[in-house]
Amino acid sequence: MLFMDIITWEPKDNDEVTRRYSEWSWPDSVEVISEWTDLSTCRYVAVVDIKDSESYAIAALPWKDICHIETFPVMETPKLMAMMSEYV
């Protein structure tokens, strides 16, 4: 299932987040669709395909002490529109 993560952190933690990210990698059980870094603030966005809750926990837990993570399910808009036409 596709999820979007919006991850933010305090400016004072920017060097530590950068250091950790350079040494970290997504678990093999998480497929990264795309990643973006907000150039204007301390924010990172990723769209990932997560197979199960354990995979999500493995990816998120190392960041819980320094980042605020918002995760929510997403779907491509054309696919949603096609589904809606069937159910509305």
TrEMBL record:
<protein>
    <recommendedName>
        <fullName>DUF3303 domain-containing protein</fullName>
    </recommendedName>
</protein>
<dbReference type="Pfam" id="PF11746">
    <property type="entry name" value="DUF3303"/>
</dbReference>
<dbReference type="InterPro" id="IPR021734">
    <property type="entry name" value="DUF3303"/>
</dbReference>
